């Protein structure tokens, strides 16, 4: 009963804090004069993904056993798999189900499809190299972690240079902690964003712990919980952010947040794991890598075609179900 209570309370806290976080991040983007997409890919993604990257850091740097460090390697693969499948499917479902409330004539996603296709191609090229390194062993492999950090720096530089103004119907709501002021002070915007992020980080850790406890109580193996359930829990903030923005008709920010978080997960945790572990994949990690590659390749093809109906993003979520079934079959 206590575990269930903490599970529900932490989930509610994450959703409430995300409401404040996305509002603060939008204002922060305006204060820094960032375009709509850069606000999602850089500011929002850094805020929600870096706390999860800390899980990899703790596992690979402070872990004393190969098993503990293996958790960090699994997190570096599990995060992109969840974001590339479940998160995009959630955006598709949310936009399709809210199209009437948003007074949309159709469920066409209002984004720069060409830019999103470039993001998918950028991620895919880095991710394929990342997975290929997990299949071979050589002495100077750890030094390649520097290249992943450089790749993320180049990605951020490119995003900050690419301007894309938000449509007029994507109005900026008043700052939640100071709604009566049309232009709140920077310190208020920072305070709301940082405090909300702190609540998200603490509530997410509690939520992950409860997911693990519930999984073990149901008789699931620790390995299955770590590779299948925990990544879903750790990527919950990005998914909730996307859900909130889609309900507001701001799928541009929602998809930018997911793309930015995927780039962080493809580079920063990978560089840490390369520095401190052998970075060699077992069969579950190979399968996770293959399914992530398939998901992102499909998304690249989808956005490259031009106009995208929200329904077309939903099937990509099935690939995570394939991974869950594979893990359950392998561990039974």
Q: Which helices and strands, and how do they pair?
A:
Layout: H1 2-31, H2 36-62, H3 66-97, H4 113-133, H5 145-161, H6 186-217, H7 222-234, H8 236-247, H9 251-276, H10 283-304, H11 318-331
Helix pairs in contact: 1-2, 1-6, 1-8, 2-3, 2-9, 3-7, 3-8, 3-9, 3-10, 4-9, 4-10, 5-9, 6-7, 7-11, 8-9, 10-11
Question: Care to describe what's here?
Answer:
This protein is an all-alpha fold. Helix content is 74%, strand content 0%. It is globular. The chain starts with a helix and ends with a helix.
Helix content: over 70%
Shape label: globular
Order of helices and strands, N to C?
HHHHHHHHHHH
Q: Quick one: how many beta strands?
A: 0
Name the poorly predicted regions.
none
Radius of gyration over all CA atoms, rounded: 19 Å
Mean pLDDT: 84
Structural class: mainly alpha
Which strand-content bin applies to the residues? under 5%
Number of helices: 11
Sketch the major β-sheet.
none
- CA-CA gap between termini: 27 Å
Kindly list the characteristics that best describe this protein.
0% strand; 332 residues; single chain; 74% helix
